[in-house]
Amino acid sequence: MVVVSVGAAGLGGIKVLMMSETTRFFVRRNKRSRAMSQKDHLPSTQYHNKKFDLPEIEEFAYRGANKLIQSRTSEMDSTVTSVESEVASSRPSGESPANWEIVLEGIRKMRCSADAPVDTMGCEKAGDTLPPKERRFAVLVSSLLSSQTKDQVTHGAIQRLLQNDLLTADAINNADEEVIKKLIYPVGFYTRKAFNLKKIANICLMKYGGDIPNSIEQLLSLPGIGPKMAHLVMNVGWNNVQGICVDTHVHRICNRLGWVSRLGTKQKTLTPEETREALQRWLPKEEWVPINPLLVGFGQTICTPLRPRCGDCSISELCPSAFKETKNSSPSSKS
């Protein structure tokens, strides 16, 4: 046997011991190599958070096509190297979950009363009495204001802008930013949103004749506009379905129902954008538009973020998360 020992400096320090005809190689790794290896195998979420921090007012804001691709590649690479992620998904990619049609029909029946805020004050209701061009801009403004803000608050801000004739690109471009702040308060991050509204209005005037962009890519280039907003505006403003509009309600409920998972794993999706991609792999396209108001209203009334009302839900027997969060949120379990 021939034993070859290779030092960290490379092949220059080879020591050969002639023992038999078999040859074995032993490679000694230095500390720096080990450190680099550990860095390469950081958990995907840890590595992702360091390089791709999300903006403060849009929980899944668009960071550019290249960064999204890099982010997904990084996540997939680190996922493949981790032991936990070697398990295949519970169902093949693109295969619909069991009983999803029954569950969806059950949610429709629970939502037939249309008693959720989204039914009367959702972004798609903004400027519904205005001409098409003005309405598209109103929907874009409403979508921007809706981030991390309840529908009731967003609706009130839109009504105040409308009453003050400040719901067109030209009017907002000429208005004082302090006036816009006062009118949209108390929407979340109203100061930043007022600043972005001024920039958006100017872009729409300079590049689109006072109208709004008519493509996902152009909408995403506007300040403060993320994928959820862009898809909603395309659906409502241009009647062009490019994807599912996924907000925090849709994101939460789809994960509770077990409808989505991270690609190649059984893990829950971490962001609404991941949920959108996972949902679009199997949900029929005719459901892409109605799924948003349906699940948003369901999330506002029954499948709430905290203490979901599983006892009032008619499809709880088909939900893998039924009663789990209700029990965990009870006062007795906390004590």
Automatic annotation (TrEMBL):
Alphabetically ordered keywords of this record: 4Fe-4S, DNA damage, DNA repair, Glycosidase, Hydrolase, Iron, Iron-sulfur, Lyase, Metal-binding, Transit peptide
Gene3D superfamilies: Helix-hairpin-Helix base-excision DNA repair enzymes (C-terminal) (1.10.1670.10), Hypothetical protein, domain 2 (1.10.340.30)
Similarity comment: Belongs to the Nth/MutY family.
Compositional bias per record (Low complexity), positions renumbered to this chain: 76-90
Keyword Signal: no
Keyword Aminoacyl-tRNA synthetase assigned: no
This protein's name: Endonuclease III homolog
One Pfam family recorded for the sequence: HHH
Cofactor: [4Fe-4S] cluster
HAMAP family per UniProt: Endonuclease_III_Nth
Assigned GO CC terms: chloroplast nucleoid; nucleus
GO process annotations (BP): base-excision repair, AP site formation; nucleotide-excision repair
Gene Ontology molecular functions: 4 iron, 4 sulfur cluster binding; class I DNA-(apurinic or apyrimidinic site) endonuclease activity; DNA binding; metal ion binding; oxidized pyrimidine nucleobase lesion DNA N-glycosylase activity
EC code: 3.2.2.-, 4.2.99.18
Catalytic activity: 2'-deoxyribonucleotide-(2'-deoxyribose 5'-phosphate)-2'-deoxyribonucleotide-DNA = a 3'-end 2'-deoxyribonucleotide-(2,3-dehydro-2,3-deoxyribose 5'-phosphate)-DNA + a 5'-end 5'-phospho-2'-deoxyribonucleoside-DNA + H(+)
Compartments, as annotated in UniProt: Plastid, Chloroplast stroma, Chloroplast nucleoid
Task of the protein: Bifunctional DNA N-glycosylase with associated apurinic/apyrimidinic (AP) lyase function that catalyzes the first step in base excision repair (BER), the primary repair pathway for the repair of oxidative DNA damage. The DNA N-glycosylase activity releases the damaged DNA base from DNA by cleaving the N-glycosidic bond, leaving an AP site. The AP lyase activity cleaves the phosphodiester bond 3' to the AP site by a beta-elimination. Primarily recognizes and repairs oxidative base damage of pyrimidines.
Residues covered by region (Disordered): 73-96
InterPro entries: DNA_glycosylase, Endonuclease-III-like_CS2, Endonuclease3_FeS-loop_motif, Endouclease-III_FeS-bd_BS, HhH-GPD_domain, HhH_base_excis_C, HhH_motif, NTH1
Database matches in SUPFAM superfamilies: DNA-glycosylase (SSF48150)
Source organism: Clitoria ternatea
PROSITE patterns linked: ENDONUCLEASE_III_1, ENDONUCLEASE_III_2
Record domain HhH-GPD: where: 145-301
